[in-house]
Amino acid sequence: MKNLSRYQHVMLDMETLSVADNPVVLSISAIAFDIAKINNLDDFKRPANGQIRDDISFHCALEMDDQIKRGLDYNNSTLLWHLNHNEKFFRECLGQKGSTIPILVPVAALEGYNEYIRALTAKDKHYRQPLVWACGAINDHRWLDSLYSAYQIKNVTDFRSKVCYRTIRDAFPGFGRDRVNNHDSFSDCVNQLITLQEIYNANVS
């Protein structure tokens, strides 16, 4: 576990309109972080001025109509869940007046995410990809791969670089209890990466 500090790390989180293997994707967020540090909740900011990425963060909503036309899955129960538990962020992703989250066609979002990963890879002195953590090996990683497949674009993140945050969190259940995900994908990334930092530092130091 100590060797993890040799790598760059990214926390990935998505909101979707289904929990099937091929859901319509509402939002994609990712944040690069140093696993050997312990950050505060307010250390990470969404990309400014309507941008989808900066040196640290990636954040955007996706247009949904074409995803539905391509056969990606959505269901009423998940839509209702978002309205009951996640209404503010859900409406922002739909383009509600005053929303600051960029809404992209899926192709632009996917290509933008690939560029984000490439830029981080280029920063590594050995040109290694960052380890990309997500809350469930069968959830966010699979959902993102499904979206790439639907648009016939290659996900540049190698399978060796996809790691499961949930596995680590469940192995150390005493951490992160004071942080509850609100299903805003960017905020959830922050919660999850800080919990991972706490687990790492408590068990390596």
Adjacency order of strands in the biggest sheet: 4-3-2-1-5-6
Largest sheet composition: 6 strands, mixed
Q: Strand-and-helix sequence, N→C?
A: EEEHHHEHEHEHH
- The CATH class turns out to be Alpha Beta
Task: Compute the number of structural domains.
Answer: 1
Number of helices: 7
Which band does the percent of strand residues land in?
A: 15-25%
The CATH superfamily turns out to be Ribonuclease H-like superfamily/Ribonuclease H
User: From the helix content, strand content and strand pairing, which structural class follows?
Assistant: alpha/beta
The termini sit apart by 11 Å
What attributes does this structure have?
205 residues, alpha/beta, Nucleotidyltransferase, domain 5, six-stranded mixed beta sheet, 6 strands, 16% strand, globular
Question: Would you write up a description of this structure?
Answer:
The protein is of the alpha/beta class. It has a single domain, classed as Ribonuclease H-like superfamily/Ribonuclease H (Nucleotidyltransferase, domain 5). The chain has a six-stranded mixed β-sheet with strand order 4-3-2-1-5-6, with helices on both faces. It is globular, with a radius of gyration of 16 Å.
